[in-house]
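Need residues for this backbone.
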């Protein structure tokens, strides 16, 4: 390091030590759920923490839907017995509820992009071993232009920083726009996303075990459509990774 560079670096450290405590006092970390000051970034206050339902075993061996009691290592839920999924499981940090919803809305529609790091911090530990690649659910270019960012890509990038797993935001594309799915029934959701996704370069996913990243998992129509095209392109397996999933009745988004 040159003399001038060393002086500049020393100056930056001195300014940080001088103004860092001032900034911390003026702008303390806040709960991502309600905005209450907390001890550190990405921490929740006690009420918001208590309002989150963390998803852990026992759960369905196929889709990781939580069970009320342990049914055995290979037990499947009724939905997976009736219609076995093509994905290799849904790893969600929390069940969809008021606090989880608040974070999803802040990120997707409120432009609070720092929430992606909060979600990723809780999502990363849920990943099963053997994941080779993080692929976010893509937005159509017009939605990306209007929103300014893809929330799934922000979350995937944050998971990459925590895990070191490769992230490819362009491995999967949405080749046509789709109507908002929240007002549609299950069958119409599947019809709406049929043929909407594509893998432009199969070599980017061939033979790889992929974590398909999104913010909220609801009916599974979007995840199923993405999984189908990734497997057709040669992916070895696809695990769905999300912040929250709907585990009861009702829908929350896509």
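Answer:
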């Amino acid at each position: 390091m040159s003399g001038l560079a060393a002086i500049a670096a020393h100056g930056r450290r001195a300014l940080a030590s001088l103004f860092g405590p001032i900034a911390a006092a003026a702008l303390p970390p806040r709960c991502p759920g309600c905005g209450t000051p907390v001890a550190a970034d990405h921490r929740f206050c006690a009420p918001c923490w208590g309002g989150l339902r963390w998803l852990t075993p026992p759960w369905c061996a196929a889709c990781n839907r939580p069970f009320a009691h342990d049914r055995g290592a290979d037990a499947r839920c009724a939905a997976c017995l009736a219609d076995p999924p093509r994905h290799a499981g849904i790893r969600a940090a929390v069940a969809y509820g008021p606090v989880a919803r608040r974070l999803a809305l802040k990120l997707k529609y409120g432009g609070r992009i720092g929430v992606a790091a909060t979600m990723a911090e809780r999502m990363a530990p849920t990943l099963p071993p053997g994941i080779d690649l993080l692929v976010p659910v893509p937005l159509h270019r017009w939605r990306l232009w209007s929103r300014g960012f893809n929330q799934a890509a922000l979350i995937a990038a944050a998971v990459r920083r925590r895990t070191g797993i490769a992230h490819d935001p362009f491995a999967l594309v949405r080749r046509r726009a789709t109507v908002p799915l929240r007002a549609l029934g299950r069958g119409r959701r599947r019809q709406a996303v049929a043929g909407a996704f594509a893998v432009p370069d199969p070599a980017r996913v061939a033979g790889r075990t992929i974590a398909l990243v999104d913010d909220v998992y609801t009916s599974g129509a979007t995840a199923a459509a993405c999984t189908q095209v990734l497997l057709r392109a040669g992916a070895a397996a696809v695990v769905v990774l999300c912040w929250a999933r709907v585990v009861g009745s009702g829908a929350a988004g896509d």
